[in-house]
Design brief:
This protein is mainly α. Helix content is about 85%, strand content about 0%. It has one domain. The protein is built from 8 helices and no strands. Keywords: Membrane, Transmembrane, Transmembrane helix.
Length: about 220
């Protein structure tokens, strides 16, 4: 990856993080804007937008730090565990999903329902599975488990600061840009580095073979 491509990825991810945060804030933090509508105070509304823009930048940077950390962790895991790296990732995925339900529910106030915690884990898994499926389809089947690990385990780790507050509004405000940024980075990486699928590699080999045969015939 060239520095130019990295800067483009960095800036695009920043923009997506800010945009996702701003859009989400209109729904989960609507009171931050509505209080300045009557009477209308443009400067206060602008200040609120500026605040959420800064929050979006922070969320985006957290996402990018997690992404590049995982690229290193994945290589380290492959060199350390080799063929066992995928099973290790599956175990960690299961543990994190269990943690999202069991440990958070244990810390909940007495009488709380377990349904919201189950829903959170289920939505994260379904979303991560869908993104991982697309990643594997665009690259190769071996990319599925690492992609699922990133979308579930790494996203959850990035989400921990807000998870500890157990504030639904802030949890939603952070998870949306994290998922948007993580999805974008995961699905755009192979395009940036010029990864070719097995089918593309096979087609390229066939073309090279045909060109080689054609050149030989011309020489004869």
């Amino acid at each position: 990856m060239t520095s130019r491509k990295w800067v483009r990825l960095f800036l695009t991810t920043l923009f997506l993080g800010v945009l996702a945060t701003l859009i989400t804030s209109f729904f989960v933090k609507a009171d931050s804007y509505s209080m300045f509508l009557s009477p209308l105070n443009i400067w206060e509304i602008f200040g609120a937008l500026l605040w959420f823009t800064g929050v979006g930048l922070i969320f985006s940077i957290v996402s990018q730090m997690g992404f590049f950390a995982y690229l290193w962790i994945n290589q380290f895991g492959l060199s350390l565990f080799r063929s066992l790296w995928n099973p290790v990732q599956i175990i960690l995925i299961a543990f994190v999903l269990f943690d999202l339900v069991y440990f958070r529910f244990n810390d909940a106030p007495e009488g709380s329902s377990i349904v919201p915690y189950l829903t959170t884990a289920a939505v994260l898994f379904v979303f991560g599975y869908a993104v991982s499926y697309v990643k594997a389809k665009e690259t190769n089947k071996r990319a599925f488990i690492p992609a699922l690990f990133f979308m579930i385990v790494v996203t959850t780790i990035e989400w921990i600061p807000v998870l500890r507050t157990n504030d639904p509004d802030w949890m939603m405000l952070m998870i949306v840009p994290l998922l948007v940024c993580n999805t974008y980075q995961l699905l755009v990486l192979h395009r940036i580095v010029g990864f070719k699928t097995q089918e593309q590699q096979d087609n390229s080999t066939v073309k090279q073979t045909n060109v080689s045969k054609s050149n030989k015939k011309k020489k004869k």
